Automatic annotation (TrEMBL):
<dbReference type="Pfam" id="PF09586">
    <property type="entry name" value="YfhO"/>
</dbReference>
<dbReference type="InterPro" id="IPR018580">
    <property type="entry name" value="Uncharacterised_YfhO"/>
</dbReference>
<feature type="transmembrane region" description="Helical">
    <location>
        <begin position="413"/>
        <end position="434"/>
    </location>
</feature>
<feature type="transmembrane region" description="Helical">
    <location>
        <begin position="454"/>
        <end position="473"/>
    </location>
</feature>
<protein>
    <recommendedName>
        <fullName>Membrane protein 6-pyruvoyl-tetrahydropterin synthase-related domain-containing protein</fullName>
    </recommendedName>
</protein>
<feature type="transmembrane region" description="Helical">
    <location>
        <begin position="222"/>
        <end position="238"/>
    </location>
</feature>
<feature type="transmembrane region" description="Helical">
    <location>
        <begin position="385"/>
        <end position="401"/>
    </location>
</feature>
<feature type="transmembrane region" description="Helical">
    <location>
        <begin position="345"/>
        <end position="365"/>
    </location>
</feature>
<keyword id="KW-0812">Transmembrane</keyword>
<feature type="transmembrane region" description="Helical">
    <location>
        <begin position="245"/>
        <end position="265"/>
    </location>
</feature>
<keyword id="KW-1133">Transmembrane helix</keyword>
<keyword id="KW-0472">Membrane</keyword>
<feature type="transmembrane region" description="Helical">
    <location>
        <begin position="124"/>
        <end position="144"/>
    </location>
</feature>
<feature type="transmembrane region" description="Helical">
    <location>
        <begin position="156"/>
        <end position="174"/>
    </location>
</feature>
<feature type="transmembrane region" description="Helical">
    <location>
        <begin position="322"/>
        <end position="340"/>
    </location>
</feature>
<feature type="transmembrane region" description="Helical">
    <location>
        <begin position="749"/>
        <end position="770"/>
    </location>
</feature>
<feature type="transmembrane region" description="Helical">
    <location>
        <begin position="480"/>
        <end position="498"/>
    </location>
</feature>
Length: 775
């Protein structure tokens, strides 16, 4: 029993050590989520007086980290809300006037950590899953390194490094990026153990980890996981020459990937209909796409160019994209691995490290996917391959540390420290001698920032040298040296993590305000439109069930982007580059009225006719738009346009009356007078019901986006939805009283579901056959 308990002691210790990073903050009543940015940067929360801070004065630790509260938290909130209402989270009506939710990759509805949201309150479950990700990352890394025959101490060393590398720390609070990355060591562990044992269990774990990598919600990270997995599989094959194991692994990975079709197929449909390739793509002048060569200094001095938390970052925007830091001590041990002879694993990860940095930097090879517009790849920011760079260095550091433990050679250690020492000295000399090159940027004294932020790395480097000298000349106990190295590593990595990561009280997470209470009390459906990005930014309105004309998302409908461009510019032109933020500016426009934008939330005083001020909280004012049209209404005619551009021309034509007329290049309806009425009898995220009556046949217009999957029923009979007013919905209603229903039931979801079910069944059959054959 004691022996069994001791066997699991390192695993438990890894989990406890990673958890210890969060413990001081948890004891202080704070959790890892940047809710402070909500209270300090965005309205209406900025209008609150919170924790004795006056409105508008709430401090923000890290203004760079806003996406978790602007995007991933609200999207997951919608997903879980739909599940709890026994609905599939297919449609999101709360941003961009409506668009797919399941098709949004980052909504991650099938992520395994979502189970937490069904056993605890959402506000508590969110930070719990954030904390669990680095714990499982460390656990899986330890087990992977042990499967590579590294010692327990070396494996423990690697397990402490990976979750606290720069990449993992800067993306920690998103709930998607690191969640995808955490499965890489489990996949490699499964490959190792399967090649050793042929066990069906490891094939099953390989399938599970593969599917969860996709379901995690960040496909670019998933792509890098599978890229390294493929390379590692062939590395194992060349090591063992076991072709049947390679084939079995590839079959399982293929079936597991096919099993994610329930997410992938709707997402590919959304991507195909999105503006991503237009809105986010590489251009030759972009400095922030690849890792700028000068930013590689962050490997040894992560804050040489400043840090967003100290409001003095002056490097290429943005900080999070270029952090390659893994700690000074781990970096030195990674260099030690270069001296290990006849170790194929070291050679493999050295090659991967070099390859990763090659593709992260701009060069004739790395630019190929963008030059030739490779599908999906051309919209991926290559700097994020630093994930593979960081992972590989963490493995190499573990190998180097293992070498240090088994066969300490002072010459190798000094040769490993030397490059780091020379880099730091060179950096110091350059900074001091060429201080004239450091001009002020936005009132930041860049020279002082650079010089000051070399000091921590210098101290760690010299401390490491002292430890080696103590070992060589004073023969200090190796156990003491090892303990000191661990302490040094934990200190520098935890220091980096604490400096960058914001922690917040649970009460700071989307608190109610008078503004949100007022808007939430109004019967749906209606939309809001804001005049400033600081108001209800991103998808924050979704948490309060408020539908917004604006939105912030890497994926949004290209037709919607085109409509907003024409709406704002007043002319037919190419879609604008919104850089993910779509915020229409012309609230006093008939397109805003057509979109059912009943309330304008603004800082301004609106004197325009038809706008009545109905609420104010702090700086945030709400005006009711008396000219807003209902979400669903009848028109007298539909005019036939020659093409879609002509439809847009009509929409911005001042003489075209959207109250009584619509335009379409697909159909027409002759003008006629009639009397009609439309009432909503049910309205939720995925469907709504109407009761209509009219004395003549007429077109019903619904200002929801026309998108594959919407179905309409009139008296339980299928009615054809026709595209109208460029990108919205219309059906023809016969005279009389009718019950009308609209449901979002995309075939992409059902096709994906069938593929997933078929793949799971096929995978099960394959595993059963394998088990019977080899076990």
């Amino acid at each position: 029993m004691k022996k069994s308990s001791f066997k699991f002691a390192p695993v438990i210790l890894v989990c406890l050590m990673v958890f210890s990073f969060f413990l001081p903050k948890l004891l202080n009543g704070k959790v890892p989520i940047p809710a402070d940015s909500l209270l300090g940067l965005y309205h209406p929360w900025r209008d609150l007086s919170t924790d004795n801070y006056l409105p508008g004065k709430f401090p923000v630790k890290n203004p760079l980290i806003t996406d978790p509260v602007l995007q991933t938290y609200p999207w997951r909130y919608l997903v879980i809300s739909n599940f709890k209402n026994f609905q599939m989270p297919l449609w999101n009506p709360y941003s961009f006037s409506g668009q797919p939710l399941l098709g949004n990759i980052q909504s991650s509805p099938f992520q395994i950590f979502n189970l937490l949201f069904f056993i605890m309150p959402f506000r508590l479950a969110w930070p719990t899953q954030i904390i669990l990700v680095p714990i499982f990352t460390g656990l899986f890394m330890y087990l992977f390194l042990r499967s590579c025959m590294l010692s327990k101490l070396a494996s423990f060393f690697g397990a402490l490094i990976l979750p606290f590398t720069g990449f993992f720390m800067v993306w920690l609070t998103w709930g998607t990026v690191t969640t995808a990355a955490l499965w890489l060591p489990l996949i490699l562990l499964s490959v190792n153990n399967f090649f050793k044992s042929r066990s069906t269990l490891w094939l099953a774990l390989l399938a599970f980890a593969t599917s969860q990598t996709v379901f995690a919600g960040h496909w670019q990270t998933a792509f890098y996981v599978f890229l390294l997995t493929g390379l590692y599989l062939f590395f194992k094959f060349f090591q063992t020459s076991k072709k049947d194991l390679l084939v079995a692994s590839l079959i399982v990975i293929f079936l597991a990937l096919a099993g994610t079709a329930i997410q992938v197929v709707p997402s590919l449909e959304f991507i195909n209909n999105s503006a991503r390739n237009v809105d986010q793509s590489y251009s030759p002048g972009r400095e922030d796409w690849f890792v700028p060569l000068k930013q590689l200094v962050q490997i040894i001095a992560p804050d040489y160019f400043g840090n967003p938390t100290t409001y003095n970052y002056w490097g290429v925007w943005n900080y999070a994209e270029f952090v390659s830091y893994i700690g000074i001590a781990p970096f030195i041990f990674a260099i030690v691995s270069f001296f290990i002879k006849r170790n194929r694993l070291a050679v493999f990860f050295i090659a991967v490290t070099i390859g990763a940095i090659l593709f992260a930097l701009k060069n004739p090879i790395s630019i190929v996917p963008y030059k030739y517009n490779f599908p999906l790849l051309s919209s991926m920011q290559p700097s994020r391959i630093l994930f593979i760079f960081s992972f590989s260095l963490a493995v190499l550091a573990s190998l180097g540390f293992d070498r240090f433990l088994k066969n300490f050679k002072s010459k190798q250690m000094f040769l490993s420290v030397l490059p780091v020492l020379l880099l730091i000295i060179s950096l110091l000399v350059y900074t001091v001698l060429f201080n004239d090159n450091f001009s002020r940027v936005n009132d930041i004294n860049t020279f002082k920032v650079a010089l000051r932020n070399i000091i921590p790395s210098s101290v760690v480097t010299f401390a490491f040298i002292v430890l080696i000298l103590l070992q060589v000349f004073l023969k200090i106990s190796k156990k003491i040296i090892i303990f000191a190295i661990f302490l040094l590593t934990i200190t520098e990595l935890f220091r980096f993590g604490y400096k960058f990561t914001p922690f917040s009280k649970l009460t700071w997470i989307f608190p109610d305000t008078q503004t949100t209470k007022f808007l939430s009390s109004i019967a749906r459906p209606f939309r809001v439109i804001t005049t400033d990005r600081r108001i209800l930014n991103g998808s924050t309105s979704a948490v309060y069930k408020l539908e917004n004309v604006a939105g912030y998302d890497p994926l949004f409908l290209k037709d919607y982007g085109q409509l907003i461009t024409v709406w704002d510019s007043g002319k037919i032109t190419k879609p604008g580059s919104f850089n993910r933020f779509v915020t229409p500016q012309k609230y006093n426009h008939k397109i805003a009225n057509f979109l059912n934008a009943k309330y304008i939330v603004t800082f301004d005083t609106l004197d325009d006719q038809g706008f009545e001020k109905v609420h104010q909280e702090g700086e945030t004012k709400i005006y009711e738009n008396k000219n807003a049209l209902p979400r669903a209404f009848f028109v007298k005619e539909v005019i036939k346009a020659d093409n879609r551009d002509k439809e847009l021309e009509k929409l911005i034509d001042k003489n075209f009356d959207l109250t009584n007329s619509a335009v379409s290049s697909e159909f027409s309806f002759d003008r006629q007078e009639f009397t009609g009425k439309v009432d909503f009898t049910k309205y939720d995220d995925q469907s709504f019901k109407l009761k209509v009556s009219l004395d003549k046949t007429a077109p019903l217009i619904v200002s929801n986006p026309y998108y594959p999957g919407w179905e309409a029923l009139v008296d339980n009979q299928i009615a054809q939805i026709k595209r109208v007013n460029y990108m919205f919905q219309s059906i023809i209603i016969p005279e009389g009283e009718h019950g009308v229903e609209f449901h979002f039931r995309p075939s992409s979801f059902y096709n994906g579901l069938l593929i997933s079910l078929g793949s799971v069944i096929s995978l099960t059959i394959f595993l059963v056959i394998w088990k019977r054959k080899y076990q």
